[in-house]
């Protein structure tokens, strides 16, 4: 394999910054060469002139939530066992490299920055696609308190609980989405591919068609004549949704709509409240200041309604008022949650009560998803039966009437 040229910026053991080029088969090999020269890598990238024939030697620095949760759990366990931080990072970097090269290289670069004198949280902040804001802030709090292993353990529990909730919601939503796609697909195929063939036969036979047949034939004709419009309209709707999600006003409208849906709205609200309580409680118990915690929870909430509410709450708290003085006017937070937060503020046990709220709503989400799953299945079967049954009835009813007429004559 031909070697590539990489440009680097690094620091010597004395802290002096040096720049240069290094030839290697991959970015990982280039980093190894520089470490052997007692250099701590700051940046490393393929030289502009050197491009491999088959792809790039560099992977994007990103990680999935489940991968980051596993890394955090392992890091916490190793630190608790007394293994030095640098050794932990080196071991986890090598271990992660096989499953996710970008993640492994990211950990290695964090290790290089720490070796060069940077704080762990400061180094992690340079890789936002791997370590989100809440992660960096909790590590920072752990460094300041000298309890990094405990904070990482708490962070691992938080991420594992969040992943569990995501899986539960995903499993609850998968069945209805797949069922709807199948229903629309089968119905569309029958209307466009099957009904027109019988329509020709009905026209040749003449006579009055039943009302249900006339209605199905009319829908079939409209769909055949406007299939391009329907297809383009569906694409335009999807693109419009994506573009709207990129604007503050569009996000607010869409997120409000999701929270107020007839069946799934209450479920999404419970998920949002549970996520808020778990994130806020975890940050506060890790030593993050309340104003900083509110800002992080707002930006990581994933819902514009809650984000705006929490930013407004932060401004209220800045003025010296209580959290509940604003939350009690926000429709997205149930009165029970607001009351418990108020009790927590007055008693000084806000973190514990937030954890109780999170546990309660996790159980509510579990119960709701279980009942929805058992309820959605028969509903989808009924909907599919009505759609397909109506078309089948529209096709066979004229045939049965024709047979009756022939027998009668």
Summary?
With 409 residues, this protein is mainly alpha-helical.
Which tags fit this structure?
three-stranded antiparallel β-sheet, Receptor-associated Protein, single chain, 409 residues, Ubiquitin-like (UB roll), extended, mainly alpha, 3 domains
Please, could you describe this protein's structure?
- The protein has 409 residues and is mainly alpha-helical.
- The protein is 73% helix and 6% strand.
- It has three domains: 4-46, Roll (Ubiquitin-like (UB roll)), CATH 3.10.20; 65-160, Type II secretion system (T2SS), domain F (Receptor-associated Protein), CATH 1.20.81.30; 175-409, Receptor-associated Protein (Up-down Bundle), CATH 1.20.81.
- It has helices at residues 27-36, 65-80, 85-97, 101-115, 120-124, 133-145, 148-205, 211-225, 227-245, 248-259, 265-285, 290-299, 304-318, 324-327, 335-347, 350-408, and strands at 4-11, 17-24, 40-46.
- Strands 2-1-3 form a three-stranded antiparallel sheet.
- The chain starts with a strand and ends with a helix.
């Amino acid at each position: 394999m031909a070697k590539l040229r990489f440009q680097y910026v690094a620091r010597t053991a004395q802290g002096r910054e040096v720049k240069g080029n290094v030839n290697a088969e991959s970015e990982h090999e280039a980093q190894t060469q520089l470490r052997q020269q007692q250099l701590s890598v700051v940046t490393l990238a393929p030289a502009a002139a050197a491009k491999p024939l088959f792809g790039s030697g560099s992977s994007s620095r990103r990680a999935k939530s489940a991968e980051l949760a596993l890394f955090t759990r392992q890091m916490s366990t190793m630190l608790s066992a007394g293994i030095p931080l640098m050794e932990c990072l080196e071991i986890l970097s090598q271990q992660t490299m096989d499953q996710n090269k970008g993640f492994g290289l990211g950990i290695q670069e964090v290790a290089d920055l720490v070796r060069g004198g940077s704080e762990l949280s400061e180094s992690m902040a340079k890789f936002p696609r791997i370590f989100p804001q809440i992660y960096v802030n909790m590590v920072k709090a752990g460094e300041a308190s000298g309890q990094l292993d405990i904070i990482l353990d708490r962070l691992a529990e938080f991420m594992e609980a969040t992943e569990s909730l995501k899986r539960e919601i995903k499993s609850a939503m998968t069945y209805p989405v797949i069922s709807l796609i199948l229903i629309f697909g089968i119905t569309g195929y029958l209307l466009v591919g099957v009904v027109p063939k019988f329509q020709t036969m009905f026209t040749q036979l003449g006579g009055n068609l039943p009302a249900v047949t006339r209605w199905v034939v009319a829908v079939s004709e409209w769909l055949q004549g406007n299939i391009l419009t329907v297809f383009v309209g569906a694409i335009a709707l999807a693109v419009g949704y994506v573009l709207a999600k990129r604007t503050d006003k569009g996000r607010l409208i869409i997120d409000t709509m999701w929270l107020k849906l007839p069946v799934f709205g209450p479920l999404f609200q419970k998920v949002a409240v549970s996520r808020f309580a778990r994130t806020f409680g975890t940050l506060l118990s890790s030593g993050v200041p309340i104003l900083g915690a509110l800002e992080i929870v707002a930006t990581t909430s994933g819902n514009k309604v809650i984000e705006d509410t929490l930013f407004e709450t932060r401004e209220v708290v800045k003025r010296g008022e209580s959290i509940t003085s604003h939350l009690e006017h926000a429709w997205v937070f149930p009165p029970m949650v607001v009351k418990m937060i108020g009790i927590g503020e007055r008693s000084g046990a806000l973190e514990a009560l937030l954890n109780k709220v999170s546990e309660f709503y996790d159980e509510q989400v579990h119960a709701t998803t279980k009942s929805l799953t058992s309820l959605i299945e028969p509903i989808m079967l009924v909907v599919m039966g009505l759609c397909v049954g109506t078309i089948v009835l529209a096709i066979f009813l004229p045939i049965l009437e024709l047979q009756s007429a022939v027998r009668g004559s």
